[in-house]
Amino acid sequence: MALRNKGLLIVFSGPSGSGKDTVLAELKTRDINMKQSISVTTRDMREGEVDGVDYFFTDVETFEKNIKEDYFLEYVKYGSNYYGTPKKRIEELTDEGSDVFLKIEVEGGGNVRKVFPECVSIFIVPPSMDELEKRLRGRGTETEESFNKRFAIAKDEIKRACEYDYIVVNDSVSLCADKVCAIIEAEKLKFSRMKALVDDMN
Fold first, then answer.
1. What distance in Å separates the CA atoms of residue 48 and residue 107, rounded to the nearest whole number?
2. Exposed, middle or buried, 107 (CB in 10 Å: 0-12/13-18/19+)?
3. What is the 3-state secondary structure (H, E, C) of 99-137?
4. Three-state DSSP class for residue 177
5. What number of CA atoms fall less than 13 Å from residue 90's CA on the CB side?
6. What is the pTM of this model?
7. pLDDT (tens digit per residue) in 5-50
8. What is the largest CA-CA distance in the chain?
9. Domain residues of the chain, as ranges?
10. How big is the CA angle at 194 (ends 174 and 97), to the nearest 5 degrees?
């Protein structure tokens, strides 16, 4: 298949409170051919989550067996829980022309870029650290201890934004989604993806 007919794999990262989920929800309302990759995890299912929608939930033994079978594009372990991205499904979706969004932590994003260097990486940031603090505290679910931990992690993740292809500020969900759509359109018009079309004209 010509590269221009393949979908993009889009690594989509940002600190907690940057609004990744809200932006993805907005993108799903747009007229674009996008899919969102669903990760596999060994953590317990939380209230309101649906297996196969939020995550594919499995046990440690099965996950570690899948690692040995090269099932994952990437995987990481946080504490006692594994998180991984199924490789085959992403290949199927991009081969059929869908653009696949992979919402993933910074560490996992780095792993994806190593094995899938043609991916497009986008890092979502809040307009300021003050706004990030406001968003996190506004959830009303954080103790002071958990907030401090989450805020410190966010600072560390933002330091690694330089590893990404694009940085998009989420000060307005609609405008942020517009910019992500513009990035996708620009990536599809790169010479590397359009070369076959140009060659056919010669």
1. 27
2. middle
3. EEEEECCHHHHHHHHHHCCCCEEEEEECCCHHHHHHHHH
4. helix
5. 25
6. 0.85
7. 789 999 999 998 899 989 999 999 998 889 988 999 999 988 888 9
8. 65
9. 3-201
10. 60
State how far the Cα of 36 lies from the Cα of 133, in Å rounded to an integer.
Answer: 27
Mind listing the pLDDT tens digit for each residue in 156-190? 999 999 999 999 999 999 999 999 999 999 999 99
Angle between helices 20-27 and 173-188 (to 10 degrees): 60
Backbone φ and ψ for 167, nearest 5 degrees, come out as -120, 125
Q: How far apart are the first and last CA of the chain?
A: 19
CATH topology of domain 3-201: Rossmann fold (3.40.50)
Q: Quote the CA–CA distance of 126 and 20 in Å, as a whole number.
A: 10
